[in-house]
Amino acid sequence: MANSHYVPQLILRHFCANNSITYCDIQKRKVETRNTRSVFTEKGYYPDELEKSLCEKIEVQFADLLNKKILNSRIELILTADELLTLKKFLLITIFRFKIMEPNELELYTYFNKEEIEDFKGDFFENLNKILECRTKEEMFQYTDFKNESSNLTLNAYIRDVLYSYIVFVSSKRCEEDFVIPDKGYASFEGSATIKKLNAILELAKKTNDPLLFQIASMSTPHDYLVFPLTSNVAVLTMSPFYKLCLKNSPYNIKCPTETPTLSKTPGFGNREIIEAPKLKAKSENENEYTYEIKQLKVEDVTFLNSLLLTNVDHCFACADISRIQETVNRVNENMDLSFLKCIDK
Hints:
single chain; 5-stranded mixed beta sheet; 12 helices; globular
């Protein structure tokens, strides 16, 4: 049996300081300095064949993209359509590679039996294999059920969240706070206006009979965005298609749900200065190139994203240096007792 990482080492290596990662076990209230081979791993977590597929069909390709292009970009990042697909495929695999029932799904046991809930989620290994076998976005589209006939609601929803998402790259390099990496690898955010937002799109679509609005409504889920840390200083957010309607050049004149310029006080990451359309350039008749500005975040923005990541922890998370997440600890400690993380001497 292989020793399987549910957060791959290609990500963990970028959360290291002096070749070691700081591993924080919330359940045991313990902090250790470890090597990446010994964290976020379990023997036999995946069958050997699936472990091989994860490596060959996505990790090798994404590691090349991450190390050669994403990490070498400081101000802006240029991606081809194929590279963008590789990124989104990796993010989808990140969502599905951690095997656990979410708290809100556990609540469904009151109304449904275990087999019925497993139908909603789909088989753990089958979901991973479905995504891994996709080589084009058209092959992924087949799992997007606009007629709501599929029982696998989880696969359907997250493919919409990622495949139809509006990508934003963010960096914490100019502030003093690092990103953390949870054992689940990502977190989602649903603002208080989530349902109102979906209803508003549908109402506007019906009033205007605009096909684009109907399309955006069909692509949207309750999630405002998902956040995926790629390194201690770089993360990618997959924004709901709704936010395409809030851009400066949008003809719909829809205001972002924000009253302040900082992420930490806005529902749905609604800062117009951060949400910006990529620049599209046609390299050839059949190939496009996308230029993304890498947005620099303030400390309060990073601590907000970290608070989401920490609330999505199953039992542990990691970081490069405890001293560089102290504002996060201060913020989250109000709702989670993280006092054991304060004043740690490395």
